[in-house]
Amino acid sequence: MQERLLIVDDEIDMLEGLRRLLSYEMKNLVVLTSSGGHEALRLIRQASVDLILLDVRMPGMGGLELLEAILKEDPWFTVIMMTAYGSIEQAVDAMKRGAYDFITKPFDKEVLLRTLKKGMERNRLIRENLNLRRRVCDEGGFQGLVGQSQPLRRLFDSIQAIA
User: Cα-flanking dihedrals φ and ψ of residue 138, to 5°?
Assistant: First the structure.
């Protein structure tokens, strides 16, 4: 199954360089690019995206503003922020606002690849968890189990708490 990464950066050379590198290094990855915040939101609404690599500084809608808009669309999105002007305060702020991780330009190729792979894994686990929760709720949770005794009710409560 191919996973989809959206890279959002106002530097066209950066977008193309990352697209080439990641398409070569991660064969099962479809790389989408956007040079601005509004275009990125449109892409997110149109296409299924598994991970977003987002530049902090962009004209118009900045990266932190876009991060908040993305998480309003889906609070479970995995977003990795990137910047050439990184500081600890900026990274902490991005994480508090809901970013999964924060990396600085210029990238060390191995660090970038490892960070993206961890982000993809996080996304898979979150989506799988949400899907399982949805299935449990849709099936009523205890289909096929019969009984109303107090010990059985406690068992059902324990099962629900663990789920």
Answer: -65, -35
Query: What is the Cα–Cα distance from 163 to 148, expressed in whole angstroms?
Result: 20
- Residue of 118, 112, 119, 162 whose CA lies nearest to 142: 162
- Count CB atoms within 10 A of the CB of residue 106: 8
What token pair was written down for 80?
């990795």
> Which pair of tokens denotes residue 56?
């902090």
CA distance 67 to 102: 12
pLDDT digits (tens, 9 = 90+) for 8-56: 999 999 999 999 999 999 999 999 999 999 999 999 999 889 999 999 9
Residue with tokens 């508090």: 96
Q: Is the pLDDT of residue 158 over 90?
A: no
**How far is the C-alpha of 9 from the C-alpha of 25, rounded, in Å?**
20
d(CA 49, CA 63) in angstroms, rounded, equals 17
The region that residue 21 occupies, defined by phi over 0 for left and psi between -120 and 50 for alpha, beta otherwise, is alpha
| Chain mean position to CA 98 | 10
Q: In the chain, which residue ranges form alpha helices assigned H by DSSP?
A: 12-25, 37-46, 63-73, 88-96, 109-138, 150-162
